[in-house]
């Protein structure tokens, strides 16, 4: 598995014999959380040079003072597209916020996308918000909620209690925590504005999409995933029993099977 920082790398050229599997992380966590999944993909015939895990801007080696526009979906997808300029075919796998990024990049890459697998993500303009997040728009109190809900400790707790088996996701650094706070504190204050374009991408994507969701995901319910599948032109939804928000850590063999199946389509 290669790890690429999508802001600093030049376009890459990988093996044309099979689609390059591109793994796009969400958070909590990072690109390292795809390591076990990569092992299972190796067992299914994919070589190291055919698997690419990306660090989104604001994460891994790309931490820094980034504003929301640099961290949100369109900018991340555009940079990912630029990195993949030298690839013949790709199979995009996105988790959490990496799902919208992968979907947006798939639109830009067009027919070069062999498959699209989106796990445990929100693609709807009206995502379900837990009670505290509804207070983000409240003067003064909203600011306090923002700092508590998106602190390092809270993100660790989301990773700890968001999964029901397997290893914990990687703990995010202080700099990454600031990026996550910037993303969510803006996007969740006005979901319709920021997720509306994501939903339109889902509704207009003309190629097959494989959606994965755990039936024990505390953030996105099975009903939420079903709504997304119903909006897509050509989607299959697979519900993973006993799995929470991190399928790549909790059921990596099953996820690998779905990735291989998407490549065969």
* Proportion of residues in extended strands: 5-15%
Rg is: 17 Å
Q: Could you tell me how far the N terminus lies from the C terminus, measured between alpha carbons in angstroms?
A: 23 Å
Strands, count = 7
CATH superfamily: Alpha/Beta hydrolase fold, catalytic domain
Which structural class fits the helix and strand makeup?
Answer: alpha/beta
Largest pleated sheet:
7 strands, parallel
CATH architecture assignment name? 3-Layer(aba) Sandwich
Q: In total, how many domains does the architecture comprise?
A: 1
SS element count, helices: 11
Kindly state the mean pLDDT as a whole number?
88
Share of residues in helices: 40-55%
Order of helices and strands: EEHEHHEHEHHHHEHEHH
Mass-distribution shape: globular
Structure description:
This protein has 265 residues and is α/β, with parallel strands linked by helices. The protein has a single domain (2-264), classed as Rossmann fold (3-Layer(aba) Sandwich), CATH 3.40.50. The protein contains 11 helices and 7 strands. It has helices at residues 35-43, 68-71, 73-83, 98-109, 141-149, 152-162, 174-187, 191-204, 222-231, 247-250, 252-264, and strands at 2-5, 20-24, 51-55, 90-95, 113-119, 209-214, 235-240. Strands 1-3-2-4-5-6-7 form a 7-stranded parallel beta sheet, sandwiched between helices. The longest helix is centred in the C-terminal third of the chain and has 14 residues, at 174-187. Residues 1-15 have low confidence and may be disordered.
